Amino acid sequence: MRFSASIALALAALAVAHPGEDHHDELEQRRSFEASAERLSLRHCAETLKARGVTERNIKRRSALIKEHRQKRGIKKRDLEEVLKTDHNKTDLGYTPNTPADILFAGNNSCVLTPEVTLGPYYVSGESVRRNLKEDQEGVDLILDYQIINVATCEPVPELYLEIWHCNSTGVYGGVTNQGNGNFDDKANINATFGRGIQPTDEDGVAQFETFFPGHYVGRTTHIHLLAHANATLYKNKTLGNDIYSSHIGQTYFDQDLIDEVEALAPYNTNTQAVTTNAEDGILAEAANQDFDPVVEWTLLGDTVAEGLFGWLAYGINITETEKVTPAVFRYEDGGHTNPDFGGGFPGGPGGPPPADASEAADTTSEDA
């Protein structure tokens, strides 16, 4: 799909975003990146990936993964008689469970991760390498298949750590306590880890997650944040530590029709925060154009959205780019600690700076040591 939007309308919506989240800075940084960077989508890689068997492996992998999760949930592929009796007017809501794998998974929407954009006030370092991010959160199951491609060589990028984080079904981020992010009096939220995790990419540059469809909050459309860690070290505590240098950053978005369908379900429909649509989101408007499509391709796991979703998207990165990342919160063994040097992180706020005797002893020994 392709996305177009009114930048003026989007900027007006951003004026009432979460306190501490400066979307205008992020817009300016993205504009600067797009003006100076070589405009490389993954279109030029299509034939190379196909010739090297990556496209065929994508189809087989995604087909196997969606079969696994349908079986796990007791969702069966319908027989022909049942299919013929069913109204298939679901064009705007995605494919049916009976769409052949070679049609369903052959295409790839793609976007290029920028070397550095504003992370916003919700990035927490020291999160765990894990695949399942749902914990005790309610919401529509979402299985994600991300693929990372080197835009310079058209080769998949293996042994890279892909990190994602997103809010819960009612628009609250775990791990951060500040004004505008849920109940400010809930100081325990700084220790929450739902919707956050890291996965390594395999030989095809693929990282997969099991999570839940995010909700919305004021000033932003529904989205998921991504951070690609190149040349990172995995420590014995199953984290990448708190000194983060590699930062290819981006966001994943969803079709508006799909968002509307999910938002009609509980507990999403209990969220009282004002809705910002895709067409009103300035950051999405800047990210989506004729070369880049940051909207996830998706299909239903069953017959309805409530039974879960499977989504996939390819990202291109320049593997040589690295930047130091400044998190809003550091996570240590005793929980979250607000970064006193983070501009939007409310210095001295909930959690406070790391304790004087805080040790990353578990972080200083690599997994391979």
From TrEMBL:
One of its GO terms (molecular function) is ferric iron binding. Keywords: Signal. Residues 1-17 form the signal peptide. Transmembrane segments: none annotated. CDD domains: intradiol_dioxygenase_like. Pfam families: Dioxygenase_C. Residues 336-369 are annotated as: Disordered. It comes from the Eukaryota. InterPro entries: Intradiol_dOase_C, Intradiol_dOase_core. The keyword Glycoprotein does not apply. Residues 130-222 form the Intradiol ring-cleavage dioxygenases domain. PANTHER family: INTRADIOL RING-CLEAVAGE DIOXYGENASES DOMAIN-CONTAINING PROTEIN-RELATED (PTHR34315:SF1), PTHR34315. This is Protocatechuate 3 4-dioxygenase beta subunit. It comes from Fusarium beomiforme.
